Amino acid sequence: MTEPEVFFTGFPGFLGSALLERVLARGDGPVACLVQPQYLETARRRAQEITDGIDGVDKDAIRLYEGDITEPDLGLDDESLESVRELYHLAAVYDLAVDRDLAEAVNVRGTEHVLEFAEDCDVDRLHYVSTCYVSGRYDGVFTEDHLQEGQSFNNHYEETKYRAEVAVQKRMDAGLPATIYRPAIVVGDSRTGETDKYDGPYYLLRLLLAQPSRFSLAFSLPDSSDAELNVVPRDYVVDAIASLSDREETVGEVYQLCDPAPLPVPRFVETLATAAGHRTVTLPTTKQVARAVSSRLSSSLPLEPATLDYLDHPTRYACPKTRQALEGSGIAVPAFESYVDRLVGYVLENPDVGDEAMV
To answer: How many beta carbons lie within 10 A of that of residue 287, not counting itself?
Structure first.
């Protein structure tokens, strides 16, 4: 039996599952996947769906290994994975309201454990999925060349992802062959609207949908008109990582997977409302008042107070390296207006999808 040379964390997560399918389809299997015990059954089902959908791929092309990035040696016990040459690290807590201890354990110490595993295996390549929001509340244009800028952070998610990327870049500086990918806010598939979690911008949409269509209220903060919501669909992120990760010249680089022409916050909310068939009235208020109201209503309405920080987020994102690297590939960010109807349609057809993060 061929030993796996590719290793994944973050399966069976939303991004991890789609990217794993692409890696297998291009012939890089078999792939070893680290899976937490509570997600083993889901992982088995998803693995079978993926292998059944790819011609010429064996059912054992996805090998599941029980473990956890928060544990030393990834909790693999005596499992031998010395054959691993390439590692994709996607596992993280994607939750704006995550508490400090959990974010620290998963995003920071978990990444450090993965880096140690990569070093022990002497891998030829590490692919690390970070986030544009390592920027924190950097006031200005944030590019692939920015990282340690003395910025403050909106929440523990941002801060711990920042610290994790700092750790990865330090290893890169010491010689680890790695590539970093920083997606902006990832929403559902632009072709189908599919997603597995209603968080981030979905709170805005679900708040609108919970109100009468003739009269729906939305918050507007003093600096909202100058802020942008940088949103990218899952298929763009997966296409970009699949393309960039398959090229030798991308080793040592950082790529921001963001929309180079995002919508300002008021226009974004208006676009969501139009797609949902709602007439929206914007209520100007302060963040303090909006946060107090959101906290009180969060038990009865689909609200997450942490989302408010992105309605006046001062950072603008640019991706010159990514645009240059993907030039001529046909891979580009679609305009939000071109697929928002599919996002809204999916939410309306699948009201039971939750907002819980995989932890």
So the answer is: 18
Q: How far apart are CA 205 and CA 200, in angstroms?
A: 10
Distance in angstroms (rounded) separating the CA atoms of residues 206 and 275: 12
Name the phi and psi angles at 315, rounded to 5.
-85, 140
* Tokens read off for 6: 């590719």
**Collapsing DSSP states into helix, strand and coil, what is residue 359?**
coil
Looking at residue 187, its amino acid is: V
| CA-angle at 302, arms to 297 and 304, nearest 5° | 75
Tens digits of residue pLDDT in 67-81? 999 999 999 977 779
Name the token pair of 101: 């201890």
Tokens 């978990």 belong to residue: 110
Q: What are phi and psi of 44, to 5 degrees?
A: -60, -45
Going from the N-terminus, what domains does the chain have, and what CATH number goes with each? 6-186+231-257 (3.40.50.720), 193-229+262-313+334-349 (no CATH)
Cβ-based neighbours of 139, under 8 Å, separated by 6 or more: 314, 315
How many other CB atoms are there within 10 angstroms of residue 143's CB atom?
Answer: 17
The predicted model scores a pTM of 0.96
